[in-house]
Structure formats: structure tokens, C-alpha cells
Amino acid sequence: MTISETTTDPVDLGLDWPATRLGVENLSVSFDVDGRQREVVTGVSFELTPGSCVAIVGESGSGKSVTARALVGLAGRNATVTADRLELHHEDALAFTSRQWRKVRGRDVGFILQDALVSLDPLRPVRAEIAEALRLHDWGNRRERAARVLDLLTRVGVPLARERARSRPDQLSGGLRQRALIASAIALDPDIVIADEPTTALDVTVQAQVLGELEKMKDRGASIILISHDLSVVAQLADHILVMRGGRVLEQGTAAEVLAAPRDDYTRALIAAVPSEHTRGRSLSSTAPAPDSIALGSVARTSGTVLEAHDLVKRFRAPDGSSTRAVDGVSFSLAAGETLGLVGESGSGKSTTARLALGLEKLDAGSVRLLGSAWSTLPEWRRRRLRPSISAVYQDPLSSFDPRWNVERILLDALRGQRLSPTARRSRVRELLELVGLTPEVLPRFPLKLSGGQRQRVAIARALAPRPSVLVLDEAVSALDVTIQAQILDLLVALQKASGVSYLFISHDLGVISHLSDRVLVMKDGRVVEEGAPDEIFRRPQHPYTRELIASIPVFDPGAFAA
Amino acid sequence: MTTLQAPPIAAPRPRARPRPWGLYVAGLLALLLAIAAIVPQLLATHDPFALDYARALQGPSIRHWFGTDESGRDLYSRVIYGARESLLIGLGAAAVGILLALVLGSLAALAIRPAAVVVDRFVEVMFTFPALLLALLLIAIAGPSAVTEIFAVGLGTAPGYARMIRGQILAAKNSSYVEAATALGHSRTRIVFSHILPNALRPLIAVFALSVGQSIVWASSLSFLGLGVAPPSSEWGALLDAGRGYITQAGWLEVVPGLVIVAVALTATTIGRHLQSYLEKGEK
User: Fold this and answer.
1) pLDDT tens, A206-228?
2) Residues A89 and A80: beta-carbon distance below 8 Å
3) Which residues of chain A neighbour B112 with C-beta distances below 8 Å?
4) Which ranges of chain B would DSSP assign to H, the alpha helix?
5) Which residue among A32, A94, A401 places its CB closest to the CB of B3?
6) Which pTM does this prediction carry?
7) How far is the CA of A538 from the CAs of A277, A547, B54, B154, in angstroms?
8) What is the ipTM of this complex?
9) Structure-derived torsion over alpha carbons of residues B166, B168, B171, B177, reported in degrees to the nearest 10
10) Rounded Cα–Cα distance for residues A409 and A429 (Å)
11) Rounded CA gap, A352 and A361, in Å?
């Protein structure tokens, strides 16, 4: 059975007035917070027609997910949803009872959530999860449902569907999990599919596959509502785009209108903030710090090669006694003031390489030299003397801070190695804050109370405190919203210009890597498969994996829509 | 305009947060216990040791709230005067247990490898013995007394806490902030004392409160068995032991001290639980 068989809309698509599957006019959602009404979504309107995709774009807190939930009656117990019109298949959905909503969900509207690991029951095989969706709507008998589950898994591109259907979610890779979730969302061939950040946690090659599945569904006539923070993902699929911020729609129109000729400043900022090889040397945010505004000489200037890795090998022992090579013969060198990008998908060994470079993990073979002297071969107590020369910024800054400490204590602690008087130390803390674009107001605050961007700035300040020559940035901007990411990337560029610090920059995001790096290393399964300047790698990839990786990047070229 | 739910009422009603009545009651009881332990004269109605055979084994009345025992002593006053010893044993045993657990748990988590493994296995073996058995063993060696009882109960409860502390320390040791501190070049000692121990031991305050309640129950069971403090002391376990012979004629001699022990254990547990959730909230 395919979607097209069951989803043929009663209205002939040839009409110049296409039937609306979901009509939304002036939708608002407010929450009851301690007895007070707080409006989180205001005045959202759009029409969803067969075979089209409406995308809602925005950053965290923009109200996009709440909007999606309100559309299927899942806004929550203490939410009040109002609208001038909310019509699902020409029925007034505002009047639906929760029983009616339950009938509609799954049958008419499929919902794909971001994190398949959380959304799927960890103790049930995926086939039970998918069959449940069918059973709840009294679809077929047990045997028919089992056959249907296999059919669905095959349809969403799960290889060896029969075997995989028996696996529990934790036994599947992220991509397969996400597909299983899609399979359960489309189990009853709903003609509307709402996908809330469906590819956010996925590697770029897997993301390309999932987007491909959504595209196919669209071609078969399904209507898709795509919720995403990622403009390049949205550009792949959307026909109509709504840009949301702070619960309001700032701009909406066809994909071409919004992407090629954005009217709103925020949309323009969002588009400008997407890093790629074309944005090299350009600032991504409007608030980019000018290099001269940064206190020069705050970092030790060096020249020549600062970090040298030779034939690194790291094995990990699996529970069954076998060992896998997480890092297998990786060599690289990092010159002063240079940025070396390390790109690869999850499990490629890039984070382990970072930990080896930082001397936080014992090498099984090979060696790392720091500033021309031995590093990996030293015992930790001798390494400590050299530690100020190399420091790190992590993906999740929050967990890298002691939860009992406020910003001031974190930064003072980082300065401990230097013999400074208490007053000198305090002024250095302020200097560091200024360096990363923060005000002293954050000093008494705890990282938990800071925004994601502020936290990452504090993490960078801490890493710069010992005046390092090398900064290892492990997915340091991956968890940030695109405009915040743009600010942090601009900050990193400015800091490097001013101080000559070298970056070992690790990311799964090819756009970020190509924006920032002077040289790029592509890793797969613990090995470096390709190395070179970013434009060489992106224009003339040699290794088949690199080619696949590059082909998977969603092409984001706002100009292409103008044509 | 159509709405999914009833439109909000004009005047926003303040949402009532559930009040922690349990905590209030526990707090009041804790206060009374503290007074009973420090200045029992304030609460007692009689001399707890005054014999009055004419009034032996009388049931609860206005004159004797909890009744009298076989020698005519006022049970209420004896319970009040017994608070100091009972609480000292409970607190002492909890302190001994946690301190012992702290040493064992820290060694198992932080000592160099062969030593850590030995300590860890030792704790695991201890853990397999029922706590009461360990306690009895110590009493058999040292003879019954209040001090032995403290150490016996402490020894009995230590292995369980040692396992917990070891887990806490290991979690902190493997955290990103410890790795970040290592990368900053801080020494191991510094990291242990400024990051690992403070974070690992934070929940221990609540565990201690929970342990006090448990220890009081343990200690009174030992006294009841005649293995702890002996009569004429009015330690609550000893009261239970003394009343055992009169259980058919004067049930209150068993019921009242029993209820008091339960109430005190509940008080300690309630305060411990609230402390725990408060500390956890603070961490987030």
C-alpha cells in the first residue's frame, strides 16, 4: 500500500483553488503560569494544501514547537489555545474533544518528534511500537499489522527490516531510530505529517536520507509541516516559510520570497548567520567584535608548529572482550595562528582525537608533541607545567562547570596556575570577560542561569585564562542557535586575529568547518580519509566518503531561489 | 472567537501550592525532642526515677499521661528523660556509620587501583552480611553498653552507605567539570578537594538525617533484645525491654515507647527527604 492510494484528496488537485487540509487563522497559545496568563504564540496563520510543505523556522523559545503541538491538540493541560479558525479537513478542530483528538492523531495527522531515543519506548522492540499505532486505531488483525509494520519499515528505508523490527531502540543507530519513528508516525497513512526538528540530532548523511523520505512523502501527496531551526534543512523541503521569534510570525511567504528576498531584519540575520565556505572571512553576525577592540597580547604569541600528532592509536575494549580502534593512525600538525578543522560523523573518532591531543586519554601508540616538546609521553605531574599552553572548550559548557560555582569563581579558579595577586586576578577576570563580550554583571551568576551563548562565552573565557597557544574546540558551537553560533564563530575569528592562538576545531557541521578552517581533516571510522584546504576538499573531494558527506550537505544558497 | 478551553477568568486566581504539612509536624516534633534531650525538666511531669509501688501498672490517665510501670514510675516522664540517651545513640550511630562509610567509600573510589579494589571487595563482603549480624558480632566481642551499641549500629549500616558514597564520588570523578579542571592543569589533590568531594558529599546531609531515624530503630531493637543499654535507664529500647513482661496486663508499656520510636524515626526521615529534594533542586 502506498500513501497515494489512501490519501487521494476528494477535491481535484487540478482546480486552481487547491483544497486546504489544515487551515489556521490567528492562532494564539497562552500558558497559565502561577495563575497568570502568558501568551507564548500570537497570531499564527497559514493554509496547508496537499503535497506541500509549510515550514516554521525559529530559534529556541520562538514558539515553533508549541505551535506544532497546538495544531494537534497537544498544547498541554494548562495551555489555552484560541484562533479565529482552526480547521482540519474542513472540520472545526477548536471544538474537538480530547477523544476526537485521539482519533485524529495518527489517522489524519502524524507527528514526528526530534529525539527518537526519548520518543520510543526503550523496552519495546520497534515493531511493537509501530503496531501500537495501528492497534489504537483498530487497524487490521494481528497478522495484518505485523505485515504492515514490515512494509512501513521498508518504505522508510530501513534495510533488513525483518531483523531490525525486533530490535529495541537502543540497539539501533540514530538514523534507523528516527526512521522507525517516522514509520510509526505514518503507519496509518495520515495526509498531514508534522515533523518537529526531525533531523536535528542526526549526522549529515543520515539527515539527507530522512529529508529524502519526507520529500518522497510530499511527492506522494502528503502535506508536511516542518519545524526547524535550520534554514538549510528548511530550504530543501519547504514551499512556504513562516519565520517566528518570541511567539510572533515576523515574516511569511513562499520559500523563494523569504529566502531570496527577506523583508525582515531578523530573517536577514538568520540567513546571514548560516556558515559555509562562502562566508569565510566574513562576519556572520551584526554584532561581530572588531579585532582591534580586543585586548591584544592577551594570549602568548608563538610561531612555528604548536601541536604535532604522529600516528595516534587508541583502542577501546568492548564488553565482549574484543577491542575496536577508535582512533587509528591519525597524524596532523597545527601551526601557530592556524585553524585545523576536524570533521566527521558521530563515532568517527574525532572527539577521542581531541582528548588525546589534550592529554586526557592514554595513547596506545603514537605520540603528541606540544610546542616542540614531549607531551603525550610525559607523566601527568610533568604535563601539568605545560597544561596552560593547551586548553579546551566543550560542546556542553554547562556540564563542564562545577555546579556549585558561579562565573567569578570559575574564572578565578582557571587563573590559579598563574602567580597573580588577588587584585591582579580580579582585573584579569574582568579583562577575560571583556574579551569574550560579556559584562561583569554575569560574575555572581551561576552557569545554569545563563543563556547558551553566554555559557559558551564563559567557557571560552575560562579556556583563554591560562593564555594558551592551542585551543581545542570540541563541537563548541553545535548546541547553539544559529544566530548565537554566528556570534561565537565571529568571536573566535576575532580572538585568533588578535592573539594568534591556534584552533583545533572539531565539528560534524561541514558549514561551520569550512567557514572557519585553514585546513580540514576528514575522519571516518577512526582514520583520516582526506586532508587539505577547505575549498580543495569541497570542490574536488577525492575519497568516496568525503564525496558522500559533501553531497549530503543541504545546499543553502538563498540566491538560487531568486531565479 | 472560538476557544478550546473556557476563557481565562478575569481575575487571575493564585494557584495554591501544596503546603508541606508533614514537614511542619516533623519540625515541631524535632523541636520537642530537642527540648526533651537538653532540658527534660521543662516537659516532664514527674521524677522519672521516683518509685511509687501503690501506683504500679496504672493505665494512662490525666495524672499519668502514658500510665505507670511496674514500680509506679511515670512512663511519660521516663520517655522524656530517655530522649537524650536514645537520640545520642541514634546520632552517634549515624555519625559512626557515615564516617566509616566515608572512609571506605572514598578509598574504594579514589585510592590507587589495587588498594581501591581490595577496599571495594571488603565493602561488598560486609554488605552481604545482615546489618544486625554485624552489630551482634561487635556486641558479642565488646559486651553490651551504650558505646558498643553506637559502634555496633554504625558498623552495621556503614557498608550500604559506603557503596552509595563510592558511586557518588565516581560520578563526580568522571564528570566533565573534573575533566575540565584536569585540562586546566590543576593537581589531583586540588581536584579531589575542590570538585569531587564537595559535589559527591552534598547529598550526604540528607542521608545523615535519614540514617538517624534508621539508627534509632536499630539501636532500640538491640536494647529490646537486652544487648544495648540495660534498665533502669529509660532509653526507649530499654523501656520496651522492661515492659515486655507485662505485655498482657499493661500493654501501654510496649505501645507507647514503640509509637515514640516510630514517630522519631518518621520525623528524621521526613526532614531527611525534604532536605534531599531541597538539595537536588539547588543543584539544577
Assistant:
1) 788 888 888 888 888 889 999 98
2) no
3) none
4) 21-38, 75-110, 113-128, 131-142, 146-173, 176-183, 188-191, 197-201, 204-224, 236-243, 252-283
5) A94
6) 0.76
7) 8, 8, 104, 67
8) 0.72
9) -120
10) 10
11) 8
